[in-house]
Structure prediction request, 496 residues.
Amino acid sequence: MDSQKEALQRIITTLANKNEELHNFIETLSHSLAGVQVNSTQVISDLEEEFDTLFSILDEMKESMTNTIKQEQARKSHELQNQLTQSTNALESAEELLEFANNALHIKDEEEFAKAAKQIKDRVTMAPAFRLTMKPKATDSMTHLMVDFSQERQLLQKLIFLPVPRAPEIEAQDCLVMDNTVNLVWRMPVEDSKIDHYILEYRKTEHEGLPRVKDERCWEVVDNIKTTEYTLTGLKFDSKFMNFRVRACNKAAAGDYSDPVTLETRAFNFSLESSSSHLNLKVEEGSVEWDPQGGKGLESKIKGKENKGRSGTPSPKRAASARSPAVRGGRDRFTGESYTVLGDTSMDCGQHYWEVKALKDCKSYSIGVAYRNLGKFDQLGKTNTSWCIHINTWLQTSLAAKHNNKAKSLDVAVPEQIGVYCDLDGGQLSFYNAESKQLLHTFKTKFNQPVVPAFMVWCGGLTLSTGLQVPSAVRSFQKTENGIGGSSGSLNSMAQ
Prediction:
């Protein structure tokens, strides 16, 4: 019966996953169908705009060329008309002179004849007919303004849609996620020398598999990539996965997107738990700062009531009325000299990494892990339920590893930023210089229950960097050295 239930449960799980996959696919199809309608309308509008522009250019060219022909017509007509008028006037003058000369032949008187002959000679010398050019100043030919658009017609007849690049193919097996960077590699299915650049789009998601149309986060864009490889750096991995897609562009248009690829980007993310922190700590999601005036009146009331009990421990009813509400899991707010704040996310297995940076002039602070049942008066490193390194810069700078009220001084410079590596499976807690990855100290222990990040601050503040993968340098060091070089035998323990 039990085995049948298990088999049925597996079938139910498979069916549920398939239903979710089908829902996502249907949403994708519906989105694509709507996109076809919208995009078709858009390209038709673009096509009409292009043809309108082309028609406008042709109309402008036609008007310009027509004006040129009309101007040439007017020029030639003017010149020929002038020549025609001049020639007509010259002809009239020549006919009159010819008639006068013919009449002079019949003059009998010698003196009159000589006078007429001289007059005729003088008039012939000055006659317009003999001074005119008998060649037209313009021809009637207009062939120099004829056009032949046969080649252009052939070009227009060959008009086609833009040559759009094909969709690239992301080489998922060659993509690499490491050190909070993602290196993407893709290729073109067919070599295309006209590709000018690529566009990469990515977004964070909590869903494995194909991207969902209705995802909470928008695509982010990296444009003008000149090669078929790109590395995204400085990422915060605050989602389980990331979707990626690429499209190729030539000088004219962008092609289709590649098939999307989903890569796993799991990392340890947590915030600080303000509801259980000491009242003198001002806690935000990713930072904590010492506040000497924080909860001053309330804390004095709590201390006054606590001092009335014989054992120094207030009754639950009296304490509950004097302090802020308990946090998840019912733990009390830290008080007294335990200037402590915990992370809000437990770790029970695997390897985790985060970094901490102290604000300038921070006098005293501790960084480590603790069980969630750490007492409200307990200071980090002074119990068998917490492990930390403590930095003090009050009078002189010191760095020490602390656990179970034992301390070991560490002869290393205090880094600006400290990396914390917690290996729950391997039983190690290591601290590193976050920049150089120099090992500061390693605790070797066995954690018998989940732990949470833990911090103590006095006169200063800390800022957190979460969503970080375990750096490759740290992984490499752990594999080769197994954390032995920085460990201290006096502080190694079996967790209680």
